[in-house]
Amino acid sequence: MASLAEPESRVSDDDFREEVQDFLAKNFPPELKGKSNALSALEGPTEESPAERAWREAMGAKGWGTPTWPAEYGGGGLTRRQTAILNEEMARAGAHNPIGGMGVMMFGPTLLEYGSEEQKQEHIPPICRGEIRWCQGYSEPNAGSDLANLQTMAEDKGDHYLVNGQKTWTSGGQWADKCFCLVRTDRSDKHRGISFLLIDMDAEGVEVRPIRMISGVSPFCETFFTDVKVPKENLVGEEGQGWTIGKRLLQHERTNLSGGGAMARLMGASLADIAKKYVETTDDGEIADRVLRDRIADFEIRWNAFLLTARRAGEESKASGGVSEISSVLKKLGTKLGQERAELAIEIMGFQGLGWEGEGFTESELQGTRGWLFGKATTIYGGSTEVQNNIIAKRVLGMLDHQ
Amino acid sequence: MAVLNDEQIMLRDMAREWTQNESPVTEWRKVRSGGDERAFDPAAFRTMAEMGWAGIIIPEDHGGSDFGWMSAGLVVEELGKTLTASPIVASTLAASAIMLAGSDEQKAKYLPKLASGEIIGTLAVDDTPRHDGRTGGTSASGGKLNGTKPFVHEAHGADIFIAATDDGLYIAEKGEGVSLSTRKLADARSHAAVTFADAPGEKLAEGPDDALDQLLDRARILTACEMLGMAQAVFDTTLDYLKQRVQFNQVLATFQALQHRMADLFGDLAMMRSAVEGGLQALDAGFGIPRAACMAKVTANDTLHKISREGLQLHGGIGMTDEYDIGFYLKRARTLEADWGSSAMLRNRFADIGGY
Prior knowledge:
By secondary structure, chain A is α+β, with helices and mostly antiparallel strands. Chain A is globular and about 80 Å long. Chain A has 13 helices and 8 strands. Chain A folds into 3 domains: 2-99, Butyryl-Coa Dehydrogenase, subunit A, domain 1; 134-245, Butyryl-CoA Dehydrogenase, subunit A, domain 2, CATH 2.40.110.10; 258-396, Butyryl-CoA Dehydrogenase, subunit A, domain 3, CATH 1.20.140. In chain A, the strands form 2 sheets. Chain A has a 4-stranded mixed sheet. A 4-stranded antiparallel sheet of chain A has the order 2-3-7-6, with no helix packed on it. By secondary structure, chain B is of the alpha+beta class. Chain B has 3 domains: 6-89 and 108-116, Butyryl-Coa Dehydrogenase, subunit A, domain 1 (Orthogonal Bundle), CATH 1.10.540.10; 121-203, Butyryl-CoA Dehydrogenase, subunit A, domain 2 (Beta Barrel); 211-354, Butyryl-CoA Dehydrogenase, subunit A, domain 3, CATH 1.20.140.10. Chain B has 11 helices and 9 strands. In chain B, strands 1, 2, 3, 4, 5, 6 and 7 form a 7-stranded mixed sheet that branches. Chain B has a two-stranded antiparallel sheet with strand order 8-9. In chain B, strand 4 (160-165) and strand 5 (168-173) form a beta hairpin. In chain B, helix 9 (289-315) runs antiparallel to helix 11. The longest helix of chain B is centred in the middle third of the chain and has 34 residues, at 211-244. Chain B is globular. The two termini of chain B are 32 Å apart. The A-B interface holds A 272-273, 275-276, 285-287, 293-294, 296-298, 300-302, 304-306, 308-309, 311-312, 315-316, 319, 326, 329, 332-333, 386, 388-390, 392-394, 396-403 and B 1-3, 239, 242-243, 250-251, 253-256, 258-260, 262-264, 266-267, 270-275, 277-278, 294-295, 298-299, 343-344, 347-348, 350-351, 354-356.
């Protein structure tokens, strides 16, 4: 990825650390300390407070919400070492990164790699400033695990494409400004008939219907395109290159999803601490139920082995300059463990861990219930566990297709 | 695989080349049928010692290379892959006990000989068939040891025994007052009940209060390295077998049911490697060792257990034959799983360390 090459730094680490500390002292609103925007992915954006707005704008102006992206497009242009320093100082100050979403996690890195100069100039800076929300138009009712079966057509009309079709599981579709979409430009070739197209969500003919999920929230939508005109300059790469670009984006997606971690972090406390709060303990403060205690230790050991594996995959990729082959297992391992954790937490809490709404439950208990249900999606979206197993078996282990 | 330095890469490549070329599983078959109670090839061990493998953790001024635990682990992993029988692990752990708790005289007396392979050491810790981390059934008073250690590994080749007693760690030399009674286990390696009857022993008196626990944590991590090599070998062998065995006019590797099982094992193996390397890194850093040791051994136990069981199943009937290697791995796996702590025992310890 030439466009994300490691920049040279002319600033010493100590000077940079001082710069970060100064910046945080001047710009980070103390009332936001310890807050995060981690839940917004589940429940949608809330009204931005003046402090939140100021913090987003300050980070956006620096480009530090996307610290390793090139400065010429509004990124931070920082080295890995500087990014680590930035993260350390932000953690110390209790500051969260206000710039996020699919633009940062998936679309931006992909556009930096495949986009034209004009497209990068147009789309990357607003992502760095946290001004534009992107959503993903991949899945369709008949193109889930078999994504390449997608049928949404983009017909060539000379200066524009005319788009017709239906997307589903459009995360955050109802709040998004723009959509990066896989569309069909050629019916004669399943994979090479696919193109990568950027569509304005407020264009005429775009309709969004939220889907109510088992967790009670509606973070996903159905998106309908009816005779939507999309300018030709919104094609990323060449016509027919969409499958290649789209798969590359999925790698970014899986890297980010692999932390079923996000789900675990939402719950905060360790399982041992939850158990100490909800079940009987001995005089020594140990969990009295030895079987439960054993299962918690079992989970914690496997969870920590996963965290070490995620770190190792990062170190190996960095050392080799390619993607480590164990990256392929992170998504399925992290999401499975995240689900296990949520279920074990409920088992510990009993009925108190199944509260849906209303009296008798704390906010974090209610969030736990919703998080558990929402977390069921993690082994399905972004390439289900079964699809991951196919990829591992065929691409990494060299096991062949059934003839 | 952790990111290694040049020295470590060289050591690993050397170990890999030697084990694959000079010590494949056929060598273990020869040792097994040879009937030597030591259950290793002394010539092969001499070669290993000449390559410096017995002294990797031993300081340079005591004749070792002082390359550290990660380096020792890399070699042990390669030995595990081909089931190379040797007292390297036992002798390394004995040396580490002396480094941990021995006096300057004891270090000067034993470490250079352990590093060169001139003598072999082993641990005589457990008083019961099931390791529970407690000792005390063997007494030490007036420089004499009395008691029986029912299962001591590499006992037949050992020149010195590191014995856990009611008065801490002692070192006893073979000979006077030390007798062996062979215990043949399924893995066909060297195990014996070692009885100390007024055996002369010298206390390893200069260690920390928890010297035994520290020693056991080292044993857990280094044993997990051998298990990692075995798990990798079983996985690779099984994958190769699935790619060549034909049934229903298909190679087995094309069946999705089998592909998904292998993908699961591949993920488990990745986590096992991370946990084991995490243990070695903790040892080299001297930080967070008890927790890392529990993680390494529990993960190694559970993963090797699963991979060896699945490996045999996926080989089908042929895996049940003595002619195929897979059975050797299964039998050795269960011995090492019982070594220095079952998963249940170590999860209990992990929870104790975590304060819950």
